[in-house]
Task: structure prediction
Amino acid sequence: MPPHDGADESSARAPLLPPPAPRRAAARLHPLPLIVAAAFVASFRLLFLAPDPSYYQSLLLSLGSNATAAAHLRALTLRPHIAGSEANALTAAYVLDALSSHSFPTHLTPYSVLLSYPERRSLSLSAPGSDTTHFALEQESYPGEPYAAEAVPTFLAYAASGSVAAEAVYANYGRAEDFAYLAARGVNVTGKVAVARYGKVYRGDIVRNARDAGAAAAVIYTDAKDYAAGKAFPDGPWMPPTGVQVGSTFKGVGDPTTPMWASSEGCQRLSIAEAMASDDMPGIPALPVSGMDGEAILQLIGGDVAPEDWQGGASAPAYRLGPGPAVLNLTYVGNETMATIQNVISVIEGKEEPDRYVILGNHRDAWTFGAVDPNSGTAALLELAQRLSELQKKGWRPRRTIILCNWDAEEYALIGSTEWVEENRATLTSRTVAYLNVDSAVAGPGFYASATPQLDELLKEASKQVQNPDNRTESLFDLWMASNTSPLIGRLGGGGSDYSAFVQHIGIPSADMSFGPGYAVYHSLYDNFIWMEKFGDPLFQRHVAAASIWGLVALRLSDEEILPFNYGYYAAELENGAMSINARVLGMPVSLSPLDNSIKKFRRAVLKMDSELKALHTWKIWAPWRNSPLKVRDINDRLMMTERAFTEREGLSGRPWYKHLIYGPSLHNDYGAEIYPGVDDAIQTAKKTNTSESWQAVQNEIHRIARVINQAALVLAGGLT
Result:
């Protein structure tokens, strides 16, 4: 039965005493009409004095400004601004000033962290009968970009310093299976320079896979087949022949000198030498090169012809496996140094529940100009902040606290967000409702989203309220549904952006949103304002739409009394993952019964929560005087904390920073998202070794995920065993 807040229902049915005679007195009113009248007055006040949350949602959507987004992006991308540089400190000051101008309490949070810069690089190619080619290792600039010379020379952050002169071996996309294929073909990689192309896995995994195969060094290039399929920039959106994708090769998360803890002032640290000796570092010299240079190398590699799916485009030469006769002479000397980074944190305090946080985050640092990655997201964040300021002027104040975060050093290893989460872990785990990430907000047409499953329905509903920026007769939802993306909503197991610490380390419900599936000039000199203005978003309508969906989801999470979570989607995801595991271990000495039983328990908890939510909504409509703030708080806490229960203190086997046992990165591709990553790791090992011990390890991982799902079911259902 629903609570009565101390009221005895029988008292409403008791007969009234007659008034004493002969005095005439005002009749006592029956309490039920009084209650109804009170409820009517309360409803009147809600309807006419305090605007419904939907009013502010509509107002937010009406306030978008293309010009504001464009102006912010132009200012942010004036100069290259790699983390730790003076130029990036200036962008931090710009964001700080922009957010402070709206009277939001805003501050900088600095950290001293280990960053990596190039000091000296060289690469030459020789082969019998050919002249030696000395590669310039430069990206050609063009008129109209006066600050191009300020860009850091092309490099791979945290690559080992050293010189190698050895035969080249072609390794396709540098995946573990590509090196396994070379071994099966009898191609010896030991002591050689592995030449691989970008496109399938994280560059750090490419270098690591090369190292594990015995290579002495690695070269990664941008193949025209994947990055130059049309007119090159500035005439088209594709990568120019000399364009180079730079980036990090560190496999860890956060500051390399403080693994598992925050880089706070005076904290314990590894030495730089100890950090660079970590297995998460690439451990061998490596360089990125352009498509033009990569093709020149491949033309001189001999040996057997590579398989068809290893070949380049129609105009490319035949790719061969090697080794040799091409010899690469590679030198890389890096400068690993402690540098100061700065997060910008801005707080809009909640009125009713200031101790509950809805956090929005985007990073600011870029390898070069960063018009797409990440400052399209920064521009959207600042444009959204202006709208929230306008809402405040109209009387809005969020129910829960909204925190706007602009991270630093994401490109190196998600450092700014990770250090902040590690430093504030206890507070964030007890108070955070959700984290909403936007990295590269706009790279082109089409809407893409990833999330933890309880946010799926919210994302779909919100997208129905936002206009398609490329067709005003449609909603964003219509655009999304027409994309035929499968799955429609991705998951956040990969390590590609700042949601990682929130989801994979402390278990916060999270989402990531963007326009455009990807772009060819990624991490190159040509990711600049001119590229965005000509090809990414000429009218800046997509920037406005990105801010709109981001802000609308934030408002619903911050303002609605009951959190708009639906764990039914989570139950379905757990079931689908179990079916996938079952197909992979069929016929093996592994039982999925513990996992199946835990998912059934979780499904029952979902049904119980759904029943409670329906009852609560019924009370709010027909019996508002029965509404209990404590009941609302209890339900919201269970909805919020269920995601935390999917984490385990020990973390993934061999990867203890990753605490979430449902979602995490693939062992061999940091960008790849896996459901049940620990089980996936164990199955891969068991299939290689096929020992009873390895299959027992698979069984152990199944028990581990069953335990966290049982914990999540208990949290969602409420109460104790």
In short: The chain is about 40% helix and 15% strand. The longest strand covers residues 106-127. The CA atoms of residues 248 and 412 lie 5 Å apart.
